[in-house]
Write a structure and sequence with these properties.
CATH superfamily: Spore Coat Polysaccharide Biosynthesis Protein SpsA, Chain A
Shape: globular
Number of domains: 1
CATH class: Alpha Beta
Strand order of the largest sheet: 3-2-1-4-6-5-7
Distance between the termini: 37 Å
Structural class: alpha/beta
CATH architecture: Alpha-Beta Complex
Order of helices and strands: EHEHEHEHEHEHEH
Strand content: 15-25%
């Protein structure tokens, strides 16, 4: 519990034995539950997670978004924080994020990686890709985010029924921010964080996943203009 609020940390996981242990160990002691959503790992990710006290939720249906949807639905605490299992996001700084989250009276906060503190933490291709997605989201939905693809968020669990989260894939990162920003009466913002290079192998085919997510972003924007979203 942190300042009177119970805290869940949700971590999607697919073959992340190189990073998951360090991530769980870095979760602050005040966190009430750590949920690792196993998305079909064939390595020792599950064993490492359970040995460190995390609750493992099994989601056999593949997909980054599908894993997150299952994890968020399984979380029980008042505030949900998310992080990746590859060691890229600073979960050890969660108290700093929660302090700013509370001070700014936010309902949803996304952790912005830009401008990067370590230029070697992300490839130039991914930096350019992130900027393209972020600009498109700003134009199509007037979102205030500088990092639309960030995978670290802090938000009130009570928001979940208000958001229509349908993506099973990589586009979940952009969708949850657009949904949060579009929810009437909710305050959204960004909090800048440091970002590290990932541990372990990249699982997603970047170009294919990126093109698919960008197409979904434009389709959603078109539907919004027609009043269908």
């Amino acid at each position: 519990m942190y300042k009177g609020k119970t805290i869940s940390v949700v971590i999607p996981c697919l073959n992340e034995e190189e990073g998951i242990g360090g991530v769980i160990e870095a979760v602050p002691d005040f966190v009430d539950e750590v949920l690792v959503v196993d998305n079909g790992s064939q390595d020792n990710s599950v064993e490492i997670s359970t040995s460190l006290g995390a609750r493992v939720v099994v989601e056999p249906r593949r997909g980054y978004g599908r894993a997150y949807r299952t994890g968020l639905e399984s979380a029980t605490c008042e505030v949900i924080a998310t992080t990746d299992a590859d060691g890229t996001y600073p979960i050890h700084l969660l108290s700093d994020l929660l302090d700013e989250f509370e001070a700014r009276e936010l309902d949803f906060a996304s952790a912005s990686r830009f401008p990067l503190q370590r230029r070697d933490a992300m490839s130039l291709r991914n930096v350019i890709g992130n900027k393209i997605f972020t600009v498109c989201a700003r134009v199509l939905f007037s979102t205030p985010f500088n990092d639309i693809l960030s995978g670290m968020w802090v938000f009130k669990r009570e928001m979940l029924p208000e958001m229509h989260l349908e993506s099973d894939g990589w586009s979940f990162s952009q969708d949850i921010k657009i949904e949060a920003f579009s929810t009437n009466g909710r305050r959204c913002g960004e909090i800048r964080i440091p970002y590290e290079a990932r541990l372990g192998q990249v699982k997603l085919p970047a170009w294919r996943a990126g093109i698919s997510a960008l197409a979904k972003l434009f389709l959603r924007g078109f539907r919004a203009m027609l009043g269908q979203d």
